[in-house]
Automatic annotation (TrEMBL):
InterPro entries: UDG_fam1 (IPR002043), Ura-DNA_Glyclase_AS (IPR018085), Uracil-DNA_glycosylase-like (IPR005122), Uracil-DNA_glycosylase-like_sf (IPR036895). GO terms for cellular component: cytoplasm. GO terms for molecular function: uracil DNA N-glycosylase activity. This is Uracil-DNA glycosylase. The keyword Transferase does not apply. Belongs to the uracil-DNA glycosylase (UDG) superfamily. UNG family.
Length: 233
């Protein structure tokens, strides 16, 4: 495997691996190298930059949930949007996601925020920007990640049928505005952040709508209930 793509899962490498030869990605790699050399803590760790794709190969994507940036607190981010590592306090937006899931499906709220169980079932938990400096939200925006993740979303939207795109908030909705609602299900609401959740996220029922759509097209539903222990499943 090429030195520049050490963690990219093979099926994704076959469709987006060429991006690593583009000038913007070389520039991004140099930026990250310089930030690390300057002693700045970068999250998640390098082996987890592409964790969302590691767990959800391109031909297995059934649902896409878009986030913006990784969490910027120590120990939180591990490469999946909205998810945190085992033992880490559940962030407020994810608390609200759990509240809506309980209201929608009757699933009790999990006592952890580790969402790999979803990813392993074909839920691509993709941030628009895949790295961040500790304590500085949005610090790696505009460095090239957005172009790379645009390519990922375009690949899914153009090469698949009947994928559910869950777009929470204006940022995600703008990023995936090109997705054809005739080929896919596009679910939009405000962001689950405490600042906006009461303005249309609660009661939006994205989980049941996702499963109803998948089943209507002969696809298996997502088991949204997380394992009791975060390392299970």
């Amino acid at each position: 495997m090429a030195q520049s793509t050490p963690q990219l899962e093979e099926s994704w490498k076959s469709v987006v691996g060429g991006e690593f030869d583009q000038p913007y990605m070389r520039s991004l790699k140099q930026f990250l190298l310089e930030e690390k050399q300057a002693g700045k803590p970068i999250f998640p760790k390098g082996s987890q930059y592409f964790r969302a794709m590691d767990l959800t190969p391109v031909d297995q994507v059934r649902v896409v949930i878009l986030g913006q940036d990784p969490y910027h607190g120590a120990g939180q981010a591990h490469g999946l949007c909205f998810s945190v590592q085992p033992g880490v306090r559940i962030p407020p937006s994810l608390v609200n996601i759990y509240k809506e899931m309980e209201s929608d499906l009757g699933i009790p709220r999990a006592n952890h925020g580790f969402l790999e169980h979803w990813a392993r079932q074909g839920v691509l938990l993709l941030n628009s920007v895949l790295t961040v400096e500790e304590g500085r939200a949005g610090s790696h925006q505009g460095k090239g990640w957005e172009r790379f993740t645009d390519r990922i979303i375009h690949t899914v939207a153009e090469e698949h049928e009947h994928v559910v795109f869950i777009l929470w908030g204006a940022y995600a909705q703008k990023k995936a505005a090109f997705v054809d609602p005739k080929r896919h299900l596009v679910l939009k609401s405000v962001h689950p952040s405490p600042l906006s959740a009461h303005n249309g996220f609660f009661g939006s029922r994205p989980f049941s709508k996702t499963n109803a759509y998948l089943q209507s097209h002969g696809l298996a539903p997502i088991d949204w209930q997380l394992p009791i222990t975060p390392d299970a499943g």
